[in-house]
Amino acid sequence: MREIGHFIGGEHVAGTSGRVADVFNPATGEVEAQVTLASKAELDAAIENAKAAQPAWGATNPQKRARVMMKFVDLLHRDMDKLAEALSREHGKTLPDAKGDIIRGLEVAEFCIGAPHLLKGEFTEGAGPGIDMHSVRQPLGVVAGITPFNFPAMIPMWKFCPAVACGNAFILKPSERDPSVPIMLAELMLEAGLPAGVLNVVNGDKEAVDGILDHPDIMAVGFVGSTAIAEYVYSRGCAAGKRVQCFGGAKNHMLIMPDADMDQAVDALVGAGYGAAGERCMAVSVAVPVGEGTADKLMEKLTPRVENLKIAPYTAGNDADFGPLVTRDAYARVKGYVDKGVEEGATLAVDGRNFSMQGYENGFFIGACLFDNVTRDMTIYKEEIFGPVLSVVRAKTYEEGLDLAMSHEYGNGVAIFTRDGDTARDFAARINIGMVGVNVPIPVPLAYYTFGGWKRSGFGDLNQHGPDAFRFYTRTKTITSRWPSGIKEGAEFVIPTMN
Ligand code: NAD
């Protein structure tokens, strides 16, 4: 059995805790490998390595640090197929989608090549008599990232690329469900010229997470995962005095206005609702057609499209729409939600529960499911399902549809499909959700903007990637200087002002 350990101080390190977790191939349902789950002692060893490596790395000029990112981007291109294969094997997503996962991380690495510019401070000459003032951005020291299973390449890169480009050392605690790719990424950073110990990967579960949250030498923690754990990490990390940002779950709505191009809206819904088997925090899981006529037209076009979605293991070629769910537990949870939806009275227009993948009967495949007549009080509307299940909630008016999205506890992404500029503008201005698409179903901002949800989808005050990442992973120091020629004789007892 393949053993997946840690990557500490530039070396592969076997686990010593004696605790392991199974890593599955979701397509076959077989155990692929075992990942070691770190104890506090192993985490401490990684932090000691990071502490030893950080001062020299932080003092390395930003252009040299940027060159490491540049080389890393080249290496990602070189190893794209290998990385995508490893990613699909443990996650289950199709190979083209796995490449998308890697490329969305690579684009953040490209953004980080701009570190010398992004880290520039400010300077005021003559801020007072003979006084100059300037500010600098300095790295925090040792920082950590805790990441989810659904983007095992992209989200680790969203975390460690800006952190190390800013001069920090990093401890990555990836998901224990698909741990191979994060280690491969750390190997590539080493090959790109990152000094050993600057980027460490510690595999583990709650014990490793708690160790990170309580450790006095970790200055900041970036987390992505489910909301319950995001809230836990945020409160425990903040209580320990750290800078913390946590990104949680989602329930993304897509409003379809009566004037929308219905074919485009249906294309958007099948891609955004069922791609990656719905295991995306920006997946559309609620479609809100406005007006009975729009709803009927939508269901008429959408139902056959959902019935005919192509499901396959990643090895079957590139034309599948989606693959299996990540684990047997995920399968049971998603199926349980569909059962619950039926029980609560929603209309199950497409029932994928009995789907079986020929030749892969033990895989974690579930067919696409589509619910109509879903209402606000139903569990399948209130909770995140994280599977290939789309709920249609019929709204009578635009105001009702807007209120629906605004009243939901999650606020990650939202979209509106319309040809009307006034409606689109009003929607974008009033909606209380972090990322908004106008005729764009998955409005994930590009690397040079920032990514973050509102309400119970995001905790903390800075977003991921873009300029916010450089703010999160640095702290500002402001220096006021005056030289002897500018100093008046005598002590001053009144607070200096600019009067
Ligand atoms: P998860 O919350 O189960 O796990 C996330 C991380 O937390 C993992 O590293 C895991 O090991 C750790 N963890 C799990 N249980 C823990 C516990 N009890 N105590 C401490 N740490 C614990 O999430 P997941 O299932 O891996 O990922 C799916 C979730 O992530 C979905 O809710 C999805 O919406 C969300 N997500 C959000 C974003 C975003 O940017 N908002 C992006 C991707 C995924």
CATH class of the largest domain: Alpha Beta
CATH topology of the largest domain: Aldehyde Dehydrogenase, Chain A, domain 1
Categorize the overall geometry. globular
Mean pLDDT: 97
Helix/sheet category? alpha/beta
What report would you give on this structure?
- With 499 residues, this protein is an alpha/beta fold.
- The protein has two domains: 2-248 and 457-479, Aldehyde Dehydrogenase, Chain A, domain 1, CATH 3.40.605; 252-438, Aldehyde Dehydrogenase, Chain A, domain 2 (3-Layer(aba) Sandwich), CATH 3.40.309.
- Helices cover 39% and strands 22% of the residues.
- The strands form six sheets. It has a seven-stranded mixed sheet with strand order 15-16-17-14-13-19-20, with helices on both faces.
- A hairpin with a 2-residue loop joins strand 6 and strand 7 (131-139).
- Helix 2 packs antiparallel against helix 4, helix 2 crosses helix 7 (180-191) and helix 10 (262-274) crosses helix 11.
- The longest helix has 20 residues, at 40-59.
- It is globular and about 85 Å long.
- The mean pLDDT is 97.
- Nicotinamide-adenine-dinucleotide is lined by residues 146-151, 173, 175-176, 205-206, 209, 224-226, 229, 247-250, 281, 384, 386, 412, 453, 457.
